[in-house]
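Data availability (excerpt). All sequences and predicted token strings are deposited with the supplementary files. A representative entry, NAD-dependent protein deacylase, is shown inline so that the format can be inspected without opening the archive.
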Amino acid sequence: MGLLDARATITWFQRASSRFVPKCNPATKNDIQTLHAFLRSRPNTLVLTGAGVSTESGIPDYRSKDVGMYARSNHRPVQYADFLHSPEIRKRYWARNFVGWERFSATQPNATHHALAQLEQENRIKGIITQNVDCLHSKAGSKNVVELHGNGYTVICLKCDYRVSRDEFQDTLKEANDDYEEITAASIRPDGDVDIKPEYIWGFKVPSCPSCGGPLKPDIVFFGGSIPRSVISKTEEMVSTSDGLLVLGSTLLVFSGFRLCLLANELELPLAIVNIGPTRGDHIANLKINAKCGEVVPPLLHIQE
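Structure token line:
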């Protein structure tokens, strides 16, 4: 990426960081103090993050009122069964992902990601389970991170154990489509793909697995797909050995995240939620803060005991 492209990307993220965040009242000093008290008495708190943490980095979510992808377009994420059985859908997905990758992979952590990394380093939280596929927690320096739905930075074969980095696969896609007209992505989606014209998809070539010839897929749990049993077991263990659960930026409408809240409730562990608007877990939460994560979490680092 050239200097001008890098500057354009930075400018785009600066604009998008507010464009994709729903309107809400500013966080109050009491909100911050209350969350601080929650964590101070529970240093073994586990954090569950959703798309609302990454919207402030310029990655839209699906469901937010007025600004989410569902509110702004007819786009719906690809279904796993469709991707698995349809070469045309795989071609469409990879063409869109190819165009959007440079911008998606250039996304940088925001203040909430960095604050969580520091809270972990200071042993003030146990670790993070994230529903996001953008790797922003790892980019920010968090170590104990479990990606509930995988991530977009690895590509896997659906028939064998072949794996390759998404950056390397981008080079492979470029070589296979060396006559492909360069397109600038107008905006990205939560899963990293973009809208492009049908004529840009028709001739797009998607390489098969170099080991077995099978179809390649990002290591993401698509809608309708199943979370690996090993990941489920790991997250359940993390909840059961914690002393509280803090949800950041998630409506909890996807059951894989809500299930962890139900487990915490079953174990009689306290539950705190920071999210703009209602969530599926509000009725079992001990604490609910209706605010931007970026206005509540980073200030925790500066509270004097």
